[in-house]
Amino acid sequence: MDFMTLPDGPVRLKNLTVPACLMDRPGDLLRVDFSLSGGQIAIEGGTEFDMQGAMVFPAFVDMHTHLDKGHIWDRAPNPDGTFPGALSTVTADREANWCAEDVRTRMEFALKCAYAHGTRAIRTHLDSIPPQDEISWAVFRELRDEWAGRIDLQAACLVGCDRMEANGAFRKTADIVAESGGVLGMVLYPAFDLRERLAGFLRLATERGLAVDFHVDETMDPESETLRLLGETVLETGFSAAVTVGHCCSLSTQDTTRAFDTLDLVAKAGFSVVSLPMCNLYLQDRHRDRTPRARGITLVHEMKARGINVSFASDNTRDPFYAYGDLDMLEVMRQATRIGHLDHSADDWSHAFIGNPAHACGFDKPTLVPGEPADLVIFKARSWTELFARPQMDRIVLRAGRQIDRTLPSYCELDHLMRTQ
Questions:
Q1: Which fold has domain 60-361?
Q2: Are 376 and 51 in contact (CB under 8 A)?
Q3: Where is the Amidohydrolase domain (predicted)?
């Protein structure tokens, strides 16, 4: 029987494979049966289908993306694959091309990809240097409304810490974020007055009731310790809203004692951490005509051991910061497992792609509990090695129990935005 095409009516999916942690049970993988009825996971009933051991997950949560940057590579490739090359290229492209139509077209293209791959919630960062803040946030609000019921969308502003002046132009950006129901975000790098800037930033967030999200220590320089300074500042100020930090690459190059002491501080401050292994592998430790020595990934095992809420996410897609990607969380899961050696480790890393990011962002947690929406992703693979060996492009994606059309958008849809190099 071809179980890759399922009816919309009540069905009983027998002989599925699911990570035990997603059922709140010990162990690695379990064989289970699920019923689907009325768009929800049900206890029993329906036409029976033997799923032959196919793996099933709740729909994914991608908590760190850059939808506004996505898919500009064809007109703005990174000249040398480095972080500075990415930064300067994006800046030039933003200033030349990021009108509302351009941003909207590329963001919607990315959302179509994420939806087809099985993602149901996304947090995106939005470059928010004026006047881009008004342009991109208006587009975001429109898309959030249009995609409601398919993908839940959040946004965080993105500015460098050197541009954040608590009593300057950034106040207006913070107001735009608050009016849009967003998250206050900033990129941290060493600066002589960073502690004062952080205090002012957290004060703006507190006044507006906003959670915060930081790009932190996206470098292999062991002297970069903005994560440590952020932890100290949050504890000193008593900031109480949710704090998310991403990247944290420099921890991997620091003295172990120092790095672990910083992790203890992060755990005490209650931060959520999101690792972006694909982008960091691409950018970090890149030098012309030299093989990279380091992977760029942060200390995810050591964070998890301290009870820190750790997630993985896509980050950039087909832009100067990462030339590849398609907002496919299975690809993130597969590459994170390889890059971070998640295999031969704990049995519950699946949470880092579903429940952990939902918790960090305040999204509804996708579950496999009866009575919850039947938003599922089903793969023919029956084990981890089968799952990660192939791209699984023949997966089933169910939303409210109905199988969606998984046709990916053609890159030709973006041709009118690109320029011949």
A1: TIM Barrel (3.20.20)
A2: no
A3: 192-402
